[in-house]
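tool=predict chain=A
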Amino acid sequence: MKVFLQLERKTQVNLAFLFLAALGFWLSMTSLLPVLPAYIQDLGASDQQVGFVMGCFAIGLLLSRAQLGKMADEKSRKLVIMIGAAVVGIAPWGYIFLDSIPEMMVWRAFHGLSIAAFTTGYSALVVDLAPAKNRGEIVSYMSLAIPIGMSIGPVLGGYLLGTVGYPVIFSVSALCGMTAFIFASQAKEKPRVSAADKSPGDRLSLDKPKLETNRQFRELMAEKSLYIPALVMLCIGLVFGTLVTFLPLHIRELGIDFNTGLFYGAAAISSFSIRILIGKASDQLGRGLFISGSLLCYALTMICLANADQPPLFILAGAIEGVGAGTLIPMMIALMSDRSSSNERGKVYSLCIGGFDVGIAAAGFFLGTVTQTVGYQGGFAIAAGLSLFAFVLFLTQGNQYVKSSLQFAVGKTGDRYAQKL
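tool=predict ok
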């Protein structure tokens, strides 16, 4: 944490407001994780319909992510953050008044816009404020809002689910979102000057012209340095979508006395712990080793869930998932930051994290049908296979050549795609 003491006072204040906004945002989001699948099922939905509704969240992400990424680059990171906070503060109120599956699908898609906006703007602004040499460390620390929110939100939601009605739960979630909006409104962003705004003389005098790149989406999608991480995130999105959608239903089907929030609480504790450790280490050892480890953690999580039938096994699976999530997300953000310039960072995040969104959407739509044939445990087994596929993909294609990819994935060499600082 010493790195924060070395920052300017105004940067410290801005990061503090951003962190508090993120905490409110993730409390709002995660408090609904154990609630919504049960709520949708109580409306009379089948497993497939539950998957459809939950998958529509990612449809909202997909439809908005690219435009919001562009807005973050060309207009304002803070504006995009505030859009996300506003949506997460409004959306939970709507669930109170919905009583049909089609209405839930539309509203769930609107709710998905919140993550597209908040995570894109937040990641870009944090990296803007962070010194390049400490980028991984600060990104990891600032992402601690996720496990803190995850440790409190799902447990709170699971507790309220057994004690009060759905309207109270949705109201609590909305109030957390409104708090996020208030804190986000107090943050300030650094003035950014794009390459297009500089005079030709200014641009020629720069020592590091590569940092002035501003590629468009078509160019970004053709870059192996970016589409391979996007494919990895697609696979993990499928895994995470399977987890979020079907874990509460699986536990309900087993009939065991277990609060689903405890799974997320265990995940949050391990995620918090690992984020404190990996940030500084990744600045020194590279991102590849930690990304590889996180993908194996996801595979092990799904294997545990495919065989779990008692509370201790679910808690163990949650702890392993927390290590995977707590490592993968900040490391991917840092990796994308290393491989892009400030002028295009919002678009890069929207592309690569967009792969995660597609995965969540596909999990809801397609695996809802699969689980009707193979059951929830079979669905988790398929998710384990997807995690292993993502690992092999990163191991062999994560860098310029197969050999350099293998070396990068085990921490033996640096990232050949990283732009020079």
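The mean pLDDT is 84. Residues 293 and 324 are 7 Å apart (CA to CA).
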